[in-house]
Amino acid sequence: MFTTKRWWENKTLKLAFLGLILGGAWTVKETNGELLMELYQSLISPLTTLQSSNPTENRIRDASVMELQTRIVELQTQNQRLQKLLGYVEKGGASNRPVVARVVGRSADHWWQQVTVNRGAKVGIKPGFVVKAEGGLVGLVQTVTPHTSRVLLISDATSQVGVTISRTAAKGILRGDYSGEGVLEFYEKVPNIKVGDLVSTSTYSRKFPPGEPVGKIKSLDLKKLPAPLAKVELFPPIRYLDWVTIYPHVPEKLEEIPNKIKD
């Protein structure tokens, strides 16, 4: 009798469980799963509320995303600069190919005077080599070690560059002004120049090859004595130098400079 009762109880439990499964399946079919979705939403709702109610974690997450985005932009910018520099290198001949270098040293006390780059005698760099950056002429290699070079910038007041006005061929000497600008002193008493004229290295230059972009005329003082002066906005980003190219320059035969000392 006891065995029969035990058997009947087991069967009753199995039938009830089977009925529950069939009822659940029918409910899902009739409601297209909406009941289960509501049950799921009710279970995760407290967790979602807890997560969204934590502004500190949200700020940390947002800050991390912004940091990653900034790093990506910086890498893209560096890649573009390197591509431009490498493109310029490919234009040079095999025996006159520039060396790409990075600025690794710069003193706050001599910010506009000189920089140190991470290439030196080991890759063939010598004093007198010309240095450029995106935009044009930057300076001249002064001294070298096996692995570094010190560059005198054209923004230094002791730097002198023979330049010409592209539009009229008016010539003069450009000196640094310890800033992103230079001071141009003309050879002629009444030069044919105007604001916006482009400035490049001239055939009078002994240190630099002719035709290298330097900047543009920003302002004029034609009454200045003993010679007219102009402020030149320098093209290269000397304030924020990062990558540069260095290449050898063999001075060519100079044109005669009228009553001026050659640079």
Automatic annotation (TrEMBL):
Taxonomic path: Bacteria, Bacillati, Cyanobacteriota, Cyanophyceae, Nostocales
Keyword Nucleus: no
Domain of life: Bacteria
Protein source organism: Cylindrospermopsis raciborskii CENA302
A biological-process GO annotation: regulation of cell shape
GO cellular component labels: plasma membrane
Domain Rod shape-determining protein MreC beta-barrel core: from-to ranges: 103-247
Protein name: Cell shape-determining protein MreC
Pfam families per the UniProt record, alphabetical: MreC (PF04085)
Keywords on record: Cell shape
InterPro entries on file: Cell/Rod_1, Cell/Rod_MreC_2, MreC, MreC_beta-barrel_core
